[in-house]
Amino acid sequence: MKAIVYTQYGSPDVLQLTEVEKPTPKADEVLIKVHAAAANPADWHLIRGKPFFVRFEAGFPKPKNTIPGLDIAGRVEAVGSGVTQFQPGDEVFGSLGAGGFAEYASVPENGIVLKPADCSFEEAASVPCVGFTALQGLRDYGHIQAGQKVLINGASGGVGTFAVQYARSVGAEVTGVCSTRNLDLVRSIGADHVVDYTQEDFTRTGQRYDLIFCAVGNRSASAYKRALNPNGRCVVTGFTTLAHLIVQVVLLGSWVSRTSNKKIGLMGVAQPNQQDLLVIKNLLETGKVAPVIDRRYPLSETADAIRYLEAGHARGKVIITVEPDS
Fold first, then answer.
1. Which of 133, 134, 109, 107 is nearest to 271 (CA)?
2. pLDDT tens for residues 262-308?
């Protein structure tokens, strides 16, 4: 089968389209013929091996999983002897630790669910990682509630577009922060208010929020504190530089949390699980979340897709089309 492979850390130039052995599913795994995969920031962090500490889990001195790609959608080709939830021919989507940028991928049974019938493979592949991040960040870390004033910083990105729609689905009043060119997009997915960060700083508008969900991580702890209501929370899931994240969120954010009635904290790595994947599936089926796809690239142009994503201007998700939808 064809797959995108990298055997050393570096720029997207290290990615090569090559022939590799088709995987054989273990007893608890499902073999999927991949139709679409999503490119995520985690992919380019792993490909570059940056920040450096990711190499201690991804492999040192070289990557141990040589096929990148976390999110996929496709058809079940075969199932392991212990699999009970799926059968060949089922259309599924989900997340795996690696191996998605390939014509076939072997995935644990509990890592996928049936694809919504009215979603394309590309749409389904676009949501697992960003869905886990937005859902767990807002629900588990932010304790989002109906009626709250919620701000999403980075509202036009992959995580942000999902977060805006999920926050609206639970009854929050949502403000989205994005650039000028993305204002209409963020309004169209349900934001009640938008802030153009090229024109104004949301922490200095005088508005206060019960919950700030920051997918960018580019503000100081004092700025987040200034924009929060009493007893408000700020959940940071992205970062511009590791140094800024450690100083402003981990250290100073912890100090704000200990010395005031406002909480600022870093969200841990989102945890893929089948239960939350079913929640995401329901959000898609009920129309509460509509996937936002910016660009599509064939498998052979995966390096270009990663370069585009890494530039930081993607509106929604970037998709790798492995087997075009019929």
1. 133
2. 999 999 889 999 999 999 999 999 999 999 999 999 999 999 999 99
Q: What is the pLDDT of residues 36-51, one digit of tens each?
A: 999 999 998 899 988 8
Q: Are 148 and 313 in contact (CB under 8 A)?
A: no
- Residues 194/187, Cβ–Cβ less than 8 Å: yes
**317/177 Cα distance (integer angstroms):** 17
Q: Which helix (H) or strand (E) holds 235?
A: strand 228-236
DSSP state of 117: T
Q: Burial of 100 by CB count in 10 Å (0-12 exposed, 13-18 middle, 19+ buried)?
A: buried
| Bridge partner residues of 195 (DSSP) | 177
pLDDT of residue 142: 97
Rounded distance between C-alpha atoms, residue 319 and residue 317, angstroms: 6
Confidence (pTM): 0.94
Regions of the chain short of the pLDDT cut 70: 324-326
Query: Residue 59 corresponds to which amino acid?
Result: G
What residues contact 265, with CB distance under 8 A and at least 6 apart?
A: 141, 233, 234, 235, 236, 249, 253, 254, 257
Q: Strands (DSSP E) along 7-139, which ranges? A: 16-19, 29-39, 71-79, 91-95, 104-108, 112-114
Does residue 248 contact residue 234 with C-beta atoms inside 8 Å? no
pLDDT value for 326:
45
Dist CA 209 CA 264 (whole Å) = 13
| CA dist., res. 299 & res. 287, Å (int) | 29
| Antiparallel, parallel or unpaired: β 2-5 and 263-266 | unpaired
Predicted pLDDT at 55? 86
Residue type, 192: D
- Domains by residue range for the chain, with CATH: 2-126+291-321 (3.90.180.10), 129-266 (3.40.50.720)
